């Protein structure tokens, strides 16, 4: 079912990531971690859809998203996110029924690459609302540069959540680490206990799933989603 959402406000989180708040039409139900296929409600764009994850909770009145935008000619994005960055209150989008593989399946390790962190926002918010703490959960958030990191203070301020931020392209940064590797995981992963959540580009999903299995995490405790 297609629904129309009207933008209430848009706020930049860094040079390319925006927080968008829409009205929430009656009947739009979802679970934390789910996404929708979204299109711009404007001529020439209603058939161009891309997936974006709810960052609001099911109990909240608004439908919120955190969206990473790309230059107009970025391959695979067809200029849609560049137009999202220029949206104004009153503009509208069209969304289909929610979907997604990521949901809360227990405490553990969250591995995110870039915009792949967005499903974890609602999952962690929901866990915190229910338990009052995120003790026993760790987020490792990888970006290319420090300027690409978003919501750092938001995650750091979540009670009980252990965080590690890395950047892979800036060797002069104190956060530099070329990739999430076995040496990094050994300081955070408890393979006999953790459910491991992975979201990011295709290559990251494959690498992290293989690496987690090598470190003893069974396949049924590895939860993945592809938002490349």
From TrEMBL:
InterPro entries noted in UniProt: FAD-bd_8, FAD-bd_FR_type, FNR_nucleotide-bd, MRET, OxRdtase_FAD/NAD-bd, Riboflavin_synthase-like_b-brl
Domain FAD-binding FR-type: 1-105
GO molecular function: oxidoreductase activity
Identification of the protein by name: Ferredoxin-NADP reductase
Source species of the chain: Salipiger marinus
